[in-house]
Amino acid sequence: MKFYQKSKEELLHSYDVKIDRGLSSTQVTDNRERYGENKLPEEKEESYLKVFFKSFKEPIIIVLLGAVALSFFSSFYSFQIVGDKKHGLESLYEAIAIAILIIINAFLGFWQEISARKNLNSLKEMNNRFASVLRNGALEKISSNELVVGDIVKVTVGDFVEADIRWLELDELQLIESHLTGEADAIIKNIEVINENVEIGDQTNMGFSGSIVSNGQGIGIVVATGENTELGKISQLMKDEGMKSSPLQETVKKLTKTLMKISAGIVLLTFVFGLISSGEFSINSITSVFSTSIALAVASIPDALPVVLSIVLTIGAVKMSKNKGLIKTLSSVETLGSTSYICSDKTGTLTQNEMTVTKLYANGQLYNVDGLGYRSIGEIHLVSKGEKNVNFAQFMKNIVLCNDSSVKEVEGQVKTFGNPTEVALTVLGSKAGYSKNKLLKNNKIIRTLPFSSSRKMMSVIVQNDEGFYVYIKGAPDVLMEKASGILIGDIVDQSEQSKDNFIKVVDDYADEALRTLAVAYKKVDEEEALYGATEDVEKDFILTGVAGIIDPPREEVKESIRQLHDANINVVMITGDHEKTARAIAYDLGIVKEKNATVLKGIDLEEMSDQELYAEVKNVNVYARVTPEHKQRIVKQLQNHQQVVAMTGDGVNDAPALRAADIGVAMGITGTEVTKDSADLILLDDKFTTIEKSVYSGRTIYANIKNFMRHELTTNVAEVLALVLGLVLFRSSVGNVAAMTPTLTALMVLWVNMVSDAIPSFSLGYDVAETDLMKEKPRNPNESILANHTWSRVLIRGTVMGAMVYLGFLLAAQNGLNASEAQTVAFLTLVYGQLWHVFDARSSRTLFRRNPFGNIRLVGAVLFAGVSSFLVTIIPFFNSVMGTAQLTLPVYLLVIFIPALPTLILSGIKEVFKIKIW
Q1: Which of 450, 516, 591, 811 is deepest in the core (most CB within 10 A)?
Q2: Is-catalytic flag, 772?
Q3: Where are the alpha helices (DSSP H) in 279-419?
């Protein structure tokens, strides 16, 4: 039901209630059962246990759980059946090590999810207040949660509106509805029926839950409570929006599934081939093949991937926080780098949410005003350079005295009190050197005629040494109609020419999307000043001028938008403000290139199907007078075009769209708690420029993740190849090494993955961008993280490294080393091979193009990994656990420096011949 189209009598009859008695106790109970309570439904949260075990469903974790099970089985069999204590302990250590890795990953995921559990708490708190309600003929205070449909409610200045209300009786009621509409100004309310279809911002006979009464008082009937209110619908929209996977999560998920299939195939083939090659099907042969199969399972899966990925993203999140961007979900760090559309609310995001007088016409002269916002910094300049005599004293006196607002500076912060438009006039007066306190020393306000929607003006009557004066401000068209003349210099001009000039100024200001407010004065005698009727006092006055007011764009936003356009990112303005204002601000900021650019209004969106909006959405950059549902539709249709969408906002009305977007961005200072809870990125300084910096960080982080993935998978390829070559080629004893001995033990592989591979990979997260990433197009979210020849580089380098590891193992065996020593040679060849390779992996070109000391953390990580890997070969505890053995100095030198050759040679070939796939 569209309540704004219903008359007072219809609604009272519909709910069987009288305005002077309210509902009876019986009706309250019946209506609560029929229409529901005035509270938002509570969302059932998953138990902590369920959240903890959620990560165990990840494919990569399932494979590792399989490896744990095989290791435990192998350990049990070795202890209980074969009596091989050494092998049993090795298998047990393998199982425990892999299990610890799984638990660490589970705790990381658990911590992230639990810390983000706040979705609707702020919305619920907004309804946890009190309301004045008429029941059984008596006015009483009740908890807002106890309100029911049909209740007669009274509100006054400072009250919150606690449900959706259709107004019945008003006395100069004004509401601030910025939480729903995004408009900073208070909305003047009335009780008139609205016959046409209008959006929330134009439903002037309605009050919406969560609004604040800024002026006057009113009586209304509750027409919607709880989830049926406009605020409740936003809550439902937020709940309907599930958590979306980031482009990186989708890419990694696809890659993991592929690796799982490859891993399963390799392990199965290895197991079957090993049994066939052994020539027997016995417990001993199965146990031997098990060892190699477990090592292969661990080797073929990048088991450090979940942990390393989280840490690299955390590094990126820390970097962003230093740039005033607080990331709430780690996956959002990378999503920013993929963003192709940024949809932004206007008020408070692109603009300052601080009404400012930028132009004025006073005593026949045009002025421009410097300085934006509520700080009294800026000068007032005559537009005409030929004129020198500034003559706006009467105008300034008017706007300062006929004003209920004030501006104070508290601990370096500007605090404002009153209507935003009046605050703008107070700041203008301060810039001109006029303050209310100073003027009141010689001027006494003896009477105030408050603003009313019917009169569209406000007046104060002042007594000073010269007599009694009326100072008036209001709508230019109304004041022009009642004025007797216009002050030009020191003369009251009553000519049609002066009126035409005044009207032209008003029209020009309106064309520039400036809100206009006219100012006038009148001298009266004492009797009229004290006792004159309002309609007599407010006529035949003299116009002194008009102020042009706007919520100005943030100064830094224009440059940020230019840079985002250079980065091939589209910026879209979505606002609840009027069409003309939205278009002017968008043109001024460079969002659109033409002054008459297309603007889609909310009423237009209502008439468009999803298919029609889909066809039009990429051609429109400005939307006006929209609702939360409209914002969601816009975001979703852009997503249907395979665009990665970021949505910014600060009000409750923005929250559902923030949730629907691929990444929601909230204002940290002016943003509501609801919006912050719905967002992925919070701008701690409320600056749009922080988004642009965050996009740059996101692109850098993705490039670093790609380098890390390349390094990680190259190691996996080398590990798998070394093990497979050993299984296929090492079928007879060589020296002191028995046939079918694995090239590497499972714990050696795990050490490589978790220490010598993972720790340097963390440090790649600190790398700076290799190229100017903000000149590139956003990456295709469907593109594999291994696209652009990354796969070929992984396979080529992994194959060469794996062959060298097996060759080191074979040469060690041929030179009389025992099995543990030969495996240690293979282990260190792999470790130092990948530590040399990490310097090549950090460049999309070659290692010769990047300073190896440009990332000092990486150098430190490589030294740590190299030294610690050496130590595990000489410390007895690790000798027994991992199966390592101490080597001679010449062998150590060989395994440290020889593995550098493949990286240096391959990178050199690429540098010389520019082979893309190399």
Answers
A1: 591
A2: no
A3: 283-300, 305-322, 331-338, 393-401
